[in-house]
Every structure is written in structure tokens, then in C-alpha cells.
Write a structure and sequence with these properties.
The complex is a heterodimer of chains A (462) and B (173). Chain A has 462 residues and is mainly α. Chain A is 70% helix and 0% strand. Chain A contains 17 helices and no strands. Chain B contains 6 helices and 6 strands; from the N terminus they run E-H-E-H-H-E-E-H-H-E-H-E. Chain B is rod-shaped and about 80 Å long. Classes of the chains: A mainly alpha (462), B alpha+beta (173).
Chain lengths: 462, 173
């Protein structure tokens, strides 16, 4: 059996057996939801419904219902698209990249992080399908046989690469997530008492029996999917950044964009995972599994990616001056001191300064501080996309067409709606799906469980 | 030919099961199947489960995906209707190919990932509506089950071996 150094902190607290793990994680599914769950769920559904209303209004009226105009052609739609896609990246990072690096702490958090990825990409998809203006013609984005005189899509365009990247990313993430869920659904199925839930979980678990050969294949599939998802997740946000970087708009025309966007995506994604998990561990009483140590590890990733984002901001600023291109220089001067200075200041404070607080161990291991800072980071990352998109566009080459962008209540409604949709789905997930990969967690119980580690340490002394 | 009996050795610890399996193997008794709530590392060579070829299948699916994408981009951008877009003419495939790398990569990953998952589901026959085959519901919780198909005359010997290796329960059918 594998052993772990005694100085590594345990990942499963208290004395737990295999059966305890099953019990603890199945409890929220089998029990009844408390009143807080219903309260939050009601609010989320209301926001979601409002969003649907605003979506229908946009479809009926056209995107003139939004604040975007001739100069600022992309605004809240693409800001929100990039924001949501970025949030999604942490899920794949936790499940795939940390699997390749054999980080055991991923096991308690990967399931909910992957669920978050899927819901976030769904929210992102709403914006990107709506921003075309005629969403009923969105199938034109895919290459298909047509009667337009053999008119194909343009494979030179990053916008088309994005269509391929986002759809591959969504479908591969979904398969990865569901494959991992199958054995856990089988556990719930074999425990189920009510005939209806037995039937549902029997269907969801695809008849999983846990044979040795199935497990061998399962592990190989997980490992290879992780190997495929790792370059995939980097490619997706690189391609999203190329939507901007391959254009010649001052402020967008930067080769640093792909790594900078990927770092930013991981940064905001981990922040969102923290926000969700801090709520989940409390509401579902999973403090033994999602520990302070897990939060500390995620905060360390946040310091790293936050610093990378900070370096990117500063080098962008430096290069705009050093390039000697007056349009580039003006675009950045305008960001910092123009009419949208407050969004630039917000971005700098939330993304560059606030994560540096995690250098203090007291802050990095405080759950209250982590919760607050995780929300601050997400606000900051939203501002980042707003700064890149709106401030670069609103003052273009011809001063006569300079303008301001103000969101309409329809746009605000759609954005609020996607947040509502995200939480609606996540709350449903927390009620009917095992929120922790419980069977995978059992594999580290004897290695990283607190009581087992103590036993091993005692045995070593004698 | 005499009828065979099925013996289930149920353990509450995966290491004990592994020990039991090693003892059975040295007594030349074949373990038919092992059911466990999570993968038991190192059990495969003991009970004679071969390595899986699924990653090689995945590589072939990936190559297929890559070829399809190259064929598609060549046909649509060069073969069928070469267009000069933004001063980047697509008159020859080798000149235009850098712009097609992202789509080719995505298509490779798409086919490799989905192809492998579908192969896994079909080969292990885990599909919606399939009935589970684990003989005891506790094997998805905290129990590890070893299934042995034996001749009736070997029955008592095997039961004794299973009990000696620490099986919590032994059932004979």
C-alpha cells in the first residue's frame, strides 16, 4: 500500500470508514432539503425566470434592445461570455491537470468543480448564441451542406475556432463528468429504499457493477480524458483570447493575450469554486472532507495565477508605451484615466492587490476572508473583461464616432438570469447528485485520512 | 459434467482480498470476478485481467479526427471554393494550414475523447437501462467481493481458504 509523509496534513478529518464516507455523501440526496435551500432556490429560480423573459424580449425585438451601438459593437454580451467561460476553466483544471500531477486534494472538490464548469459553459453559450442577433440562424456557424452557392464557414477566423473549441470543451467536460459519476450513482442505487429513486439511479448508473475489468478501463479512460482535457482547456481560452488578439483594435492587438487569458480564467474559476464549496461544505455538513487545507491549496493557486495576471497587466501597460504606437498608448491611457477609469481601478484593485493578501497564512486559512476575497476576485475578473472590451472600443480612430456604452435593463436582466440559472442548476445538482466523488475518495482514506495517518505515525515510533 | 458451485468471498478490506486472491492463485484456483466499490490497485495481474487497449483505440480515434478535420478544411477552404479572405489566399493547402491548426486540434480531441468513452461504455456494457450485475449491493459501498466458480468437491477447501485469508462472509450458491 502507498504511504504518505506524516508532515502532510490529512485530507479527511476525524475517524472515518468506507461506509461513513458513503453515508455522509449520500445523506443530502436521501434526506430532505432545509429551508435555506428552498429560500436560495426560490431566489435563483426567480432570477432565472427574469432572465428568460429578457431573452425572449431580445429575440422578439432584436439586439437593439441592448446598449451596444455602432462604436461599441461588443459589450456586456461578450464580457459575460468570457467571464463565464473563464469560470468554467477551474473545473477542468482541478479534474484533469491536478489528476495528471497526482494531487490527492482534488478528490473532494473535483465533482462540484466539474459541475460548475458545465453550468458555467451553458451560461456562456447563451451569450454567444444571442450576440449573433439572429439566434435561430446559429446553425450557420457550423460547416454544413447548403444552398448558398457552396458558401462555407471561414476556417481562418478565430470566431470559428471558438465555435469548435467551446463545443468540444463542453461535450468532453460533460463526458468526463458523467463517466466519473457512474460508479457513485451505482452506490446511491444500491442504497435506495424508495422504488422510484431506485429506478432513477438504476437508469443513471448505466448498470455499473464495479467489476475489476470495468475499473481498469474506468481508470484508463479517466487518465486519458485528463490528458486530452489538459491541452483542451488551454486551447479554449487561448482561442477565446484570439477573438481579440488577432484583430488590429488598439488594446486588443497583443500577443500576451493567450497566456494572460488562461491564467485569468484559472484565477476566476478557483475563486468561484471557493465561493460554491464554502457554501456547500457548510450546508451539507461536509467539513470533514472539504477542509481548511483544501481552501488553502486553492488560495495558493489564486496567489500564483493572480500574480501572473498582475504581471500581464503591467507588461501590457509598459509595451503600449514602449511600442511607440500612439494609438496603443492612447488606448491604455484612456483605460486608466478616461471615462471608464473606475472599471480599470476596480480591476487593478480586485485582481492584482487583493490576491496578494493570501501571502499571510492567517488570511489564507481564514474561511471568512476566503469567502469575501473569492467574490472580490470574481468581480475583478468581470471588470477585466469589461475593461478589455468596452474601453478599447468606445474611443476608436475617428473621434466623431466616440461614444459611451450604458447597459440596458434587458442586458442586466439576462446577466442576472444566467447567475440565477447557474445557481438553480448547482442547487439541483447538490440535491440529487453525489457532490463528492465518494468512491474515488475512498481510495485515499487509508493514505490521507486523519486517524489512519496517526496510526501509521504511532506504528513508526514503536 | 458436474454442476459448478459459485462461491462468494466477501471482505471488508481490499488488502485482505488481495491476499486471499494470491493464496487462491497459488492453489491454482481461478477467481472468476472481483466486485469492488473502488479500483483495487494491483488486483488485475493476480486474477488474470489483461491490460486494457482502450488508450490505443483512443489514439486511433484521435488520428481519425485529425484526418477528418484536415480533409474538411482542405475541401471547404481550398478544394471546393478557394476564397481570398483578408489578403490570405487559400490557393494551396500547405500555405493556408497554420490557420487550420486550432480546428484540427479540437476535432482530434473531440473524436479521441468521445470515441474512447463510447468504446468504454460498449465494451463494459454500461448503458442506460442495463441491469447491474453485482451480486451484493454492499459492493458499491464498503465490501469487496470475490466470485469463484468451483467444482463441488473443491468447495470446502476454497471456503476454508477464504475464511483463513480474512473474509468477513462466505456464501455458497
Amino acid at each position: 500500500m502507498q504511504h504518505e509523509s506524516a508532515i502532510r496534513e490529512p485530507l479527511i478529518l476525524g475517524h472515518r470508514t468506507y461506509h461513513d464516507i458513503t453515508e455522509d455523501i449520500a445523506r443530502p440526496i436521501e434526506g430532505k432539503a432545509n429551508k435555506y435551500w428552498y429560500l436560495v432556490f426560490t431566489i435563483a429560480v426567480c432570477a432565472f425566470t427574469w432572465g428568460i423573459g429578457c431573452l425572449f424580449y431580445t429575440i422578439g425585438t432584436g439586439i437593439g434592445a441592448w446598449g451596444a451601438n455602432k462604436t461599441v459593437g461588443w459589450a456586456w454580451d461578450i464580457t459575460n461570455f468570457v467571464w463565464w467561460i473563464g469560470i468554467g476553466h477551474a473545473g477542468t483544471l482541478i479534474s484533469a491537470v491536478l489528476l495528471l500531477f497526482r494531487q490527492k486534494w482534488r478528490m473532494a472538490i473535483n465533482r462540484s468543480a466539474e459541475a460548475m464548469t458545465i453550468f458555467a459553459v451553458m451560461c456562456a453559450a447563451i451569450f454567444v448564441t444571442m450576440h449573433t442577433g439572429r439566434p435561430w440562424l446559429d446553425y450557420w456557424l457550423f460547416p454544413h451542406a447548403n444552398q448558398f452557392g457552396s458558401l462555407w464557414v471561414n476556417f481562418n477566423s478565430p470566431l470559428l475556432w471558438d465555435v469548435f473549441a467551446v463545443s468540444t470543451y463542453f461535450s468532453i467536460s460533460l463526458v468526463f463528468w458523467y463517466t466519473g459519476l457512474i460508479p457513485d450513482f451505482a452506490t446511491i442505487r444500491d442504497r435506495a429504499v424508495k422504488p422510484m429513486s431506485k429506478k432513477i439511479y438504476k437508469f443513471l448508473s448505466f448498470g455499473w457493477s464495479g467489476r475489476a475489468k470495468d475499473w481498469t478501463r474506468f481508470e484508463e479512460v479517466s487518465l486519458v480524458l485528463a490528458g486530452l482535457s489538459t491541452p483542451l482547456v488551454f486551447s479554449v481560452h487561448s482561442i477565446v483570447s484570439m477573438d481579440f488578439a488577432t484583430s488590429i483594435v488598439p488594446g486588443w492587438h497583443t500577443t500576451i493575450f493567450p497566456p494572460y487569458f488562461v491564467a485569468g480564467a484559472i484565477f476566476s474559476g478557483f475563486a468561484m469554486v471557493e465561493t460554491l464549496l464554502l457554501i456547500v461544505r457548510k450546508v451539507l455538513s461536509l467539513e470533514h472532507y472539504i477542509t481548511v487545507k483544501h481552501m488553502e491549496y486553492m488560495n495558493i493557486v489564486i496567489i500564483l495565477t493572480g500574480s501572473m495576471v498582475g504581471v500581464a497587466y503591467l507588461s501590457e501597460l509598459f509595451i503600449s508605451w514602449y511600442s511607440g504606437v500612439e494609438y496603443e498608448a492612447y488606448a491604455f491611457l484612456n483605460r486608466a484615466t478616461g471615462p471608464y477609469w473606475w472599471s480599470y481601478a476596480g480591476m487593478m484593485t480586485c485582481n492584482v492587490i487583493s490576491p496578494q493578501l493570501y501571502w499571510f497564512k492567517k488570511i489564507r486559512t481564514s474561511l471568512t476572508a476566503t469567502f469575501i476575497l473569492s467574490i472580490v476576485v470574481n468581480i475583478g475578473m468581470w471588470f477585466e473583461r469589461f475593461v478589455i472590451i468596452v474601453t478599447s472600443l468606445h474611443r476608436d480612430y475617428i473621434p466623431s464616432s466616440w461614444t459611451m456604452y450604458h447597459p440596458t435593463w434587458i442586458e442586466v436582466g439576462i446577466f442576472t438570469g444566467t447567475i440565477g440559472m447557474f445557481f438553480t442548476f448547482f442547487l439541483l445538482f447538490a440535491r440529487v447528485f453525489p457532490v463528492i466523488a465518494l468512491n474515488e475518495l475512498k481510495t485515499i482514506l487509508k493514505i490521507s485520512g486523519e486517524s489512519y495517518k496517526k496510526e501509521a505515525a504511532n506504528a513508526a515510533h514503536h | 459434467m458436474s454442476a459448478k458451485t459459485i462461491i462468494h468471498g466477501i471482505y471488508n478490506d481490499e488488502e485482505k482480498l488481495k491476499e486471499g486472491a494470491i493464496q487462491l492463485r497459488s492453489a491454482r484456483i481461478r477467481v472468476k470476478e472481483v466486485f469492488s466499490p473502488f479500483p483495487i490497485h494491483g488486483i488485475d495481474p493476480i486474477i488474470g485481467v489483461d491490460r486494457t487497449w482502450i488508450s490505443i483505440c483512443c489514439f486511433i480515434y484521435g488520428l481519425t479526427g485529425m484526418s477528418l478535420a484536415l480533409l474538411m478544411t482542405w475541401y471547404m477552404m481550398v478544394g471546393d471554393w478557394p476564397a481570398d479572405i483578408g489578403g490570405k489566399p487559400s490557393m494551396a493547402f500547405y500555405m493556408a494550414i497554420p490557420a487550420f491548426i486550432p480546428v484540427t486540434f479540437e476535432s482530434t480531441v473531440f473524436c479521441a475523447g468521445h470515441g474512447m468513452a463510447i468504446t468504454f461504455f460498449l465494451r463494459s456494457w454500461i448503458l442506460p437501462g442495463v441491469s447491474p450485475k453485482n451480486p451484493d449491493p454492499r459492493t458499491t459501498d464498503d465490501m469487496f467481493l470475490m466470485e469463484i466458480e468451483a467444482k463441488p468437491e473443491d468447495e470446502s477447501r476454497i471456503v476454508a481458504m477464504l475464511k483463513a485469508s480474512g473474509a468477513a462472509e462466505v456464501n455458497v450458491k
